[in-house]
Amino acid sequence: MPFRLLVPLGLLCSLLPLHNGAPGPDGTAPDPAYYRERVKAMFYHAYDSYLENAFPYDELRPLTCDGHDTWGSFSLTLIDALDTLLILGNVSEFQRVVEVLQDNVDFDIDVNASVFETNIRVVGGLLSAHLLSKKAGVEVEAGWPCSGPLLRMAEEAARKLLPAFQTPTGMPYGTVNLLHGVNPGETPVTCTAGIGTFIVEFATLSSLTGDPVFEDVARVALMRLWESRSDIGLVGNHIDVLTGKWVAQDAGIGAGVDSYFEYLVKGAILLQDKKLMAMFLEYNKAIRNYTRFDDWYLWVQMYKGTVSMPVFQSLEAYWPGLQSLIGDIDNAMRTFLNYYTVWKQFGGLPEFYNIPQGYTVEKREGYPLRPELIESAMYLYRATGDPTLLELGRDAVESIEKISKVECGFATIKDLRDHKLDNRMESFFLAETVKYLYLLFDPTNFIHNNGSTFDAVITPYGECILGAGGYIFNTEAHPIDPAALHCCRRLKEEQWEVEDLMREFYSLKRNRSRFQKTTMSSRPWEPPAGPGTFSSPENPDGAGEKKPAKQKAPLLSCPSQPFTSKLALLGQVFLDPS
Asked: Of 258, 273, 395, 398, which is the active-site residue?
């Protein structure tokens, strides 16, 4: 029996009048071109409202038509929306915003900022925009993509986060002061996702800048979480980064954990790292053994596997998209359809949904226009072409416009039961929700490139291929071109040879009166110790290092379809006494 016959339409029936692009009596799927234009109109209604009423604040308050700072003071919505502008085809506004950000954003400020949010939204957004700059018609400087103003901004922001990683475990604090570092009284309790969601941005930054410190600290944090898993293979929700002791022992795939699993998969693909993928697959076995029930995923005690919360969280809706990245399409579709029933029941996903009772959880009835279910629909539609996934996109457009559209943008839905609104429009609405909707309905977008077209770019390290597809989205839906990681680095042997030649050149310059060549050093060049330099926990002194042998092509291959997954994080969800 078709799935749609099993699902009560509930509240959504009153929200969805038939449009020209909606399925007709013959069951035809929604018209992608029609909904693509609807989504574009949604974006500009929200984006223009932010510019007119909220800039330079971080986010728009749509009910009072003003702005406020939320995650720092970075004009965050502008950074988050930048790559969406290009995906929608607006190169002129992309170019203008690049100039605005260079002139107005300053990270040398006395602000306490979330390490997690600053990384995924600011560092990720700037890196993505940097790598897309040439495609957007920006006049890039010589040496791009290995240099550029947006890259320097991303590096500056990331360096402000590094003091958070200076803990006995290597796992970062959750908050850092951008001017003074970690405050003396800062809590050492950090959620799992706040520790394990750095490898995509930080490895990209290390590859583009040549400074390994970013990737190094991200890898250490990942490994410390891996080493802290329970005997049954699960991780909890919050951990003390000073002692390594679990504070909240609820294990699941949702808030507080989510993007840790996501970044193991995406880090494996981005870096062609079989170890990261093996780690995820081990977690996946434990998750299926202890938390999955009838294609729902519950919360369990991490040491015993007993159910602690039989709820579905809206943030968990990224999981089918992540399953699609490892080829588990059948399980992904079954779980997606479960989540879609909840959407149909309410016209959105409540933050918490009690699975046995089939209803919302008290004080968790809201829907802040999150992207996760739409994101999974985009992944799965690319994999299957199933028209049910376009129907979810149609439902999202219709219900968001019907319930949350106001004069100054789109407002968070405070309660899905009575459609009360809250005075906030999160920056991820433009970074993710609208972007995934548009990509769901735009099969020929450059993001979906299958390798048939590409750009050849000359860098200081030789020719490099960009724009061939396989984009990996960070957890804020900022696309990273994996090929870019190979544009600014050589094999270690070649790097050492170039550095030795440069050293010889400057030595000759100093001793030109002798007209004598110096002897090239056979030892690899090492950066001087100083700010931002971390030593490897496995080999702190670098003793006994050898030049790596040439490696064979890795077994993991970069697929041609895009990769994306996002979970905006409710880091305190299990510590909230309410």
From this structure: 258
